[in-house]
């Protein structure tokens, strides 16, 4: 019994003591002791897709998100570290009904954007998904009549903009035969 208790006590001391003793100073020393740890690029260093690759984990360690995440996930994490909401996850303005003169703006960095309307106030009706794109940015909810407009915030010279995407053309609807002044 005595032996067992001693063993437990030793084990406990070994497990707890280093964590207690490790102060700020030793942490700095430990960091510096790793000579060629690659610098993690911050948000402003990201210029191309190739910059969105992490350094990976040091041998013998489990990688953290910032070490191993790549691509858009990495961009999102880097943004969060600096308080930048890369994907703009805030809900749309549901404090008022959008009108043609004053539509609810939907920011988009891509060719098209879907927005879910639940009416005013929010959750007044079931969600209805509205599709907007750069050629036809304005859409109206068929349930509550709220008007939404896509605000393009992506790159201007991405070579995709005004040309029809890969030769694809939107199928014609009755709206195409309505006089433009009724649009
Ligand atoms: Zn609606």
UniProtKB/TrEMBL annotation:
<keyword id="KW-0862">Zinc</keyword>
<keyword id="KW-0479">Metal-binding</keyword>
<dbReference type="InterPro" id="IPR036972">
    <property type="entry name" value="Cyt_c_oxidase_su5b_sf"/>
</dbReference>
<dbReference type="Pfam" id="PF01215">
    <property type="entry name" value="COX5B"/>
</dbReference>
<protein>
    <submittedName>
        <fullName>Uncharacterized protein</fullName>
    </submittedName>
</protein>
<dbReference type="InterPro" id="IPR002124">
    <property type="entry name" value="Cyt_c_oxidase_su5b"/>
</dbReference>
């Amino acid at each position: 019994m005595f032996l067992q208790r001693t063993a437990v006590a030793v084990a406990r001391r070994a497990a707890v003591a280093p964590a207690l003793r490790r102060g700020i100073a030793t942490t700095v020393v430990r960091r510096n002791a790793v000579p060629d740890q690659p610098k993690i690029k911050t948000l402003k260093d990201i210029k191309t897709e190739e910059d969105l690759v992490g350094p990976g984990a040091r041998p013998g360690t489990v990688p953290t998100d910032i070490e191993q995440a790549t691509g858009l996930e990495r961009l999102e994490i880097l943004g969060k570290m600096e308080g930048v909401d890369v994907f703009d996850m805030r809900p749309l303005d549901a404090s008022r009904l959008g009108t043609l003169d004053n539509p609810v703006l939907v920011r988009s960095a891509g060719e098209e954007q879907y927005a879910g309307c639940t009416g005013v106030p929010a959750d007044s009706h079931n969600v209805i998904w509205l599709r907007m794109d750069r050629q036809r940015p304005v859409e109206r909810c068929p349930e509550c009549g709220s008007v939404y407009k896509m605000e393009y915030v992506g790159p201007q010279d991405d070579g995709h903009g005004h040309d029809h995407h890969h030769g694809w053309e939107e199928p014609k609807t009755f709206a195409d035969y309505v006089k433009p002044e009724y649009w």
